[in-house]
Amino acid sequence: MLRCSLFVLACFLGFIGRASSAEVDYLRDIKPIFLEKCGACHGALKQEAGLRLDAIQLIRKGGDSGSFLNDVDDDNVLLSRIKSTDEDMRMPPPDAGEPLTVEQTSAVTAWLRSKANGPNEEPIPPPPNRHWAFLPPQSHATQPKLNPIDELLSKHHAEQGLQPTPEADRATLLRRVYFDLIGLPPTPQELHAFIADDREDAYERVVDSLLARPEYGERWGRHWMDVWRYSDWDGYKDSRRNSQRHIWRWRDYIVQSLNDDQGYDKMVIDMLAADEIDATNPDALVATGFLGRNYHNKNRDIWLDRTVEHTAKAFLGITINCARCHDHKYDPIPQTDYYRMRAIFEPYRTRTDRVPNETDTKKNGVSRVYDAELETPTYLYRQGNEKLPDKEHPLAPGLPEILDTALTIEPVDLPAEAWLPALREFEFEEALTAARTKVDKAAEQDKELAQAELESLTARYAADQAFAAGGVDPKLAIAAAASERRCQLLRAETALRAAEAKLAAAQKIENEEKRKPEVAKTKKELKSATDKLKQAKANATKTDGKYTHVGTIYPQTSSGRRKALAESIANPENPLTARVAVNHMWMRHFGEPIVANVFDFGLRSPSPALQNVLDALAVQMMQDGWRMKPVHRTIVVSKAYRRASAVGNNQKKSLAIDPENHYCWKMNVRRLEAEAIRDSLLAVGGLIDLTKGGPDIDYSKGEKVMRRSLYFRHAYEKQMTWLTAFDAANPSDCYRRSPSISPQQSLALANSELARTASRKLAARVFASIKDTSETESAFVTSLFETALSRSPTAEENARCRAFLAAQEELFAKKETLELIAGGAKPTHQPAADAAIRARESLAHVLINLNDFVTIR
Amino acid sequence: MYRRQFFQHAASPLASVALASLLANESYGETTDAKPGPHFKPRAKNVIWMFMIGGASHMESFDPKPALNKFAGKTIAETPHADVLKSPFLENERITFPDANGQIRQEVFPLQTPFRKWGESGLEISDWFPHVGKQADDLCLIRSMWTEDSNHGAQLQFHTGRHRIDGFFPTIGSWISYGLGSLNQDLPEFVVLGSPLADCCGGKEAHRANYLGPKYDGTQLVIDENNPLPFARPTQGVYSQEQAAEFAMIGELNGMTADRFPDDEQLKARIQAYELAYRMQTAVPDVVRLSDETKATRTAYGLDAGPTKTFGEQCLTARRLVERGVRFVQLYHGNNGGAGGWDSHKSLKANHTKRCKETDQPIGALIADLKQRGLLDETLVVWATEFGRTPGSQSGNGRDHHPYGFSVWMAGGGIKGGVAHGATDELGFHAVENRHYVTDVHATVLHQLGLDARRLVVPGRKRLEKDFGKPIREIMA
Questions:
Q1: pTM value?
Q2: What pLDDT is stored for residue B2 in this prediction?
Q3: How far apart are CA A91 and CA A100, in angstroms?
């Protein structure tokens, strides 16, 4: 449907594109050309040849060679440069961009001829360091009794002449706030209770109860997983290609932290540097999944590039990645800034630590990061080409200069359990238990060896504990080494005995043809065993202290770079961090962000219309210990949030003034996200399993396993078809969802097993809840609407639905005349045999397919 | 994301929602001159894009090099063409992953098949492609392709124009779908047939739309009328009368809601989406119902012979799709779960005779069929592969990956027939005459459909110079 309309669309676009060529309009036709073609070198950022072309007064002034408004018809510097075919002369230069098209050149010529008309008072873009987003936010809310959002918005509305819509009706509001805070619809009981609750703070009570529910963390966890690029393990067979095994622990960390109302600052610090700050706490270490997720199995440059790009986009809202190959074209970020930021991450690696009761870290474990090879230098790659490193000038770690923050980097001495995790109590206990069990279970001839191994383990632990505590204890080390040599000797003796027995057995083989090669083979083995024993005996005479550590030893010092970075990001002095976070939250409540590009707060993002609202919330969050629940609360209890989305007669003028609703004078209608649609189906069907957390569930089981959607595997090539139909997050990059409307979505809701099962269950449970009355059918329809759509039907809808029930029942009563649709999956839940019940199932199926089932009004 | 400037101009509410989706990824506001097309009068309506996975040898298909026979067994350095090893074109390769494959092979390996001249044009084509050869007068061979990746990431690169290490980008089919939309109200506009690339080499990203949004992704159809795409059929036990009544009721109730919310454009779009979905349930199984075809047609495409059956079904379905107005049909041949079926590091002869056998007859039949039905004029057929193979031998009887020179061809859709454009050097090593990077093929296809690659830009998403390519004007009829 959207597809077929594209032709129509193309015509409209053509129409817009050809905006009358008769008269050239500066703002419409000329300014965009100068910005695109000339902005990088002749704007606020750089003024090559003293020329700026980003505001009309400056254009008129000209550059070092003076104004070019006078001699339009010959020798005009501007025109001759943009028209030049000489690559050395042409503007923009070949490495900066494509030449202007003929249409663009003639537009500029016509404009110059018409005396460069335009608004005299065009604002001049400020110097980069005065860009709004690089200055600290300040709250301009002055009336503590008012909701700051409403206080600030009402001024905007008055200024703009906007008449806001009234508060939405209660049912609409309840559905909206339920989905927004917990991602599930209210039950009919909750709906009735709220409608009946005439206390003044009835709504606030609902909000507080929702924020206290564990489903809040799941709902908002999935949102933040989009921003933080959550991806489950993405491997092929046994290999790891992107992301990490067991990264679901990071997902659970996010959900739990949100439910605990952990500060955003703390979460940022954990994600970037838990291994330097909280090095022995697995509950914090799992947060470094944010970094581990960037792993690339073949190319370190890609790995680090992703890390730099997305750390900057997610937390700072800057596109530092644009400076990988050249200085940033729009922001004051030189190429060196990109590589200085890379240097922060240069030493980081990933590993999987053990968890109790599982020795195989492929099966379970804590995936985390750590620093190694701290001396590895970071070089700028000329033109971003890894073949062209600038080895003359290694770069020190640092933040982009525009943030004006020098990092104080101090290496971190790690606790022993972080660099020799095998020393952790549970690992020691488990190793000891295993060795003891081996002794108990050993056959008589193996007892001595098993006992020696147990003793060796204890001795090596003792030596390693001393080692970890500050230095090698020579006595313990020698004891450990001796115990190991003893094991070696015993093992060699055992092996020799076995080899001798094998040879003897071989010599007894009667068939000569079989005996000969077998004897030859076992003789070889015996020789090898004899040699090994000889070696072991020789070793046994040694007295040195070289023993095998009880586990892998990692570097004892971490660079401290990420800690410094994290602390400078999660810092009230940072002008970007809180604004970027609050903007993400706002977008997911209102459907539209305040700053349109959620990952670019740089010079291409001019001060947004609602900057004061953004800043007030950012300041509030920082003052409130970076907690997010209070921000959500401020937003959802505001009048702005509670407004109706439907435009009444009183707002026709507002619609004309601000059709895009920049000033939030009404609520935006939104389509639910993929996960919320699926979860909602499970909820209304009474199928939902609200078990929390745990390993990612096979994505192919999405129609069989009734857990919430965020718990299913979500990775490149490993996503549930059902969810991708509804625009689930792209695992590699999703700062913002792009909700579409497609026939594939209709097919998923109309034909999937999941949808059929849910509608059949929905019909049954709604019918079961109806008390026997004379109006059973009407009551059924009402309750069905309340359950599926969180509202009562209109009288017209109710009547139409009853007619539908009757018609479908009549249809099912004569099944023999009906025609089954072939193909399709086998349903787990069969349709009802009874015609009346099946008619109700059919109506339930209609309701979950309505636009309003996937919509928040 | 529902943008103002469009609402001001759009008369059709539906169109406005479509645009809203189009611009869903727009991030930088108003600095765009992106205008989905058509930008000018198109020469063709549809594209059938056939991709041979693994790297088909250009020398043993469409670019004969007798010099290989002459110098067989010598090292390249010993031939008079030793300078190919010093060419600056070697710099175009971007090596990233150390691999045993993807090397220059020194010992010249003779041609594994004879060639002959075909048709009035006398185009030289290998004996392994007799059916394609018969269509020579409609083919335009492009013998001067080059790419950057010496490994199979080049498969992805052929569809996005970017090296695998650069990540994922919109593909040629998605740009066309984005730029033009469909001619059919009952079918998706960008359809994929055959098993896609393996994950190693780009996977489904070779027919996805990336930042254009999932709406422009290729829709993969399976040639099975009972299950041609996900959720095309309801679960078993649903009656057609029951479902028809349900869809009608959905439309009615949505309509009542639309009366209450006349400004809700998404709702109107959703109503139409249901109408299309309902029709797709029939239209999609119909299009893959090859039993509708005559015995003669089925035989011509090779449907009744083992080796040709699979690709024959794909080619025949492709014709049925373009007949119904589907814009872009992407056919994959040679998925083997890894590098691809055409990858012949050893036993090239055994490998390629098999692969050619599987594809030659279906492709020949497709072109003949399109022509006979008068569809070839408006349908651009593209045959492509990710790179060629080395003039030197690998493992004694195979050839390695070769990004410096290889062949693709086009037919129909306003492209000259019976023409060989561009050339590699005597050894088939470097493309030397009319060199074309892979996006030149994209730009040409776009051009024939009335689209200017340079105007396909989404604000906030930087496209590089090389992403756009240049239309190959010399081959346009």
A1: 0.82
A2: 28
A3: 8
